[in-house]
Structure formats: structure tokens, C-alpha cells
Amino acid sequence: MSFEEDLESLESAEDFLDYFGLQYEASVVHVNRLHILQRFHDYLSKGADAMPEEEEAKKAVYKTLLVRAYQDFVESDAITEKVFKVFHMHEPQTTFVSIDGLLGSTPSAKDEQPAASSCCGGGGKSHSCGH
Predict the structure, then answer these.
(1) Chain centroid to CA 37: how far?
(2) Of 4, 9, 29, 2, residue with least CA distance to 17
(3) Rounded to an integer, what distance in angstroms lies between the CA atom of residue 70 and that of residue 21?
């Protein structure tokens, strides 16, 4: 089987770690398996342009990136590493609104609402709409 075919047969973080012959703590992987795999995927995506063509060299890069992804969760935790989008949902969001955007959103005189005293033609007398 080729390296690509081998990778396709791997399903869990443990499968990947075993395939590359890496020692790992089962407790770390058990708690962080999806985070490790996602981080591994992220590292592979970032380095995709520089990935070697030769199979053994590619395998070495994959192994290095998997070690790095695993080590991230040995030295830290899922909440600190924030691999998945859900961890970023409650962070402060920054939105930029230009001055033109602010000025362009003000209603012109013709778009303004009529004054309350003339909303129903009550002429300022108290009646059913509260005027």
C-alpha cells in the first residue's frame, strides 16, 4: 500500500500515532483526540504548498507535524489552544464602521417620522392614541 492509502485507512488519533510509531499518553489522547487531529490537519494545511513529493520525505513531515499537534495538548489544553470555532464564539468581536457609514445612515429630513402630536391628526388633544 502507498502512504496515501495507509493514511486513508486511519480513523482515530491513536491510529495515526501508532502508524507513525509515536509514544503517547492514552489519557492525553483520550481527552483531546479530536483537537489533536484538527490541529494536525491545520498544520498540514498551512504547509501544503511546501510538502515534498517524495513519499519518505512526506511521511517524515507528517510525523513531525503530528508530534507537534500532540505536544500542543501535552503542554496545554483544549480551552487554551482553541482549535475549534466554538471556543472563539464568546470572545470580543471587533467591527469597523467608517465615518461615511455612520453619516450615510442618518435619515434625511424627508425620511424623518412625523411629530407625535400630528401622528393621527389629534391636534394635541388627548385621545385614544395617547396624544
Answers:
(1) 15
(2) 29
(3) 13
Closest CA to 34 of 70, 9, 62, 76: 70
pLDDT tens track for 97-120: 778 777 875 555 555 555 544 455
Nearest to 39 by CA among 75, 8, 3, 70: 70
Task: Read off φ and ψ for residue 35, nearest 5 degrees.
Answer: -65, -40
Residue 72's CB is within 10 A of a number of other CB atoms, namely: 20
Q: What is the pLDDT of residues 27-63, one digit of tens each?
A: 999 988 888 998 899 999 888 888 898 999 999 999 9
Which grid cell is 46? 498551512
47 secondary structure, DSSP code: T
Tell me the C-alpha distance between 58 and 65, whole Å.
11
